[in-house]
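S1.2 Input.
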Amino acid sequence: MKHKAPFPWFGGKSRASDLIWSRLGDVPNYAEPFAGSLAVLFNRPDRDTMGNEVVNDKDCYVANVWRAMKYAPEQVAEWADNPVNEADLHARHTWLHGRIEFIERMKVDPDYYCPKIAGWWIWGLSVWIGDNFCRPKPQNSVPQLRTGGKGVARKVPHLRGGGKGVARKVPGDRTNHDNIIDWFDALSTRLQYTKVCCGDWTRVLTKAATFGNGTTAILLDPPYDTVGHDDVYGDLSRGVSAGVRDWAVSNGDNPELRISLCGYEGEHVMPADWECVEWKAGGGYGRQNESNKNAARERIWFSPHCLKLNESLF
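S1.3 Output.
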């Protein structure tokens, strides 16, 4: 079974995964500070040893999904397999945003996870129109049920007829339910030796977590520094891209690190010995005109100690 996230994700790198792994190679250690849908990890080629894999996301809902999927896939499937219902969508969205105790515990307990929150988050993201379902809001505010104008309560669930997501399943259809369990079990098996962290991106890039264990491949895919990025990534995105670039430049000469940095054309000015490769994304959510234009602007910068190829795969 192909490993794939059971929810849509803005900015996923599945189309670039072959390109990325062609430069990172088969290394004993891998770190991904901005986990998201884990598209690159799930497309990793077969390797001789499992090695050490560490993924992280500051968004506690994302980190929780992969922890819960790793340890309790069948429970997550039970909570995720629901019919599309607009009233449930808004009620669960408000409930998820109000889990302050859960958010705080995810920050301090490396073993904590909640299958119910994971399942409802997967279900909600699969039927929500847009990509900012339960993104962090200023001061942990709870979304208001507005009667007009902008606001989350005016959104209508997206009835996915054959696209991404699990929430399109028909109630009572046990065949579909069993398929979801098989899918989640496969993801759990893949994540068996993967450590899932929740916190600031720098926490998984220390010497002890990376080259202290040997040659390490690192995928840096921070929220891009573009107009409107707050609408997608919420509070987690502000000022991150520049800091990630600075870290990459400072550590690019380390022979034990193979670093890949994702961004748009012109977003990062890197040293001359870094390789910049173009690739084209799928066009974004709903394939809007702006997303289609941005799809052609995608770039990945590879540090000097990444593998070199005579010609691009794309």
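S1.4 Remarks. The chain has two domains: 1-58+199-314, 61-192.
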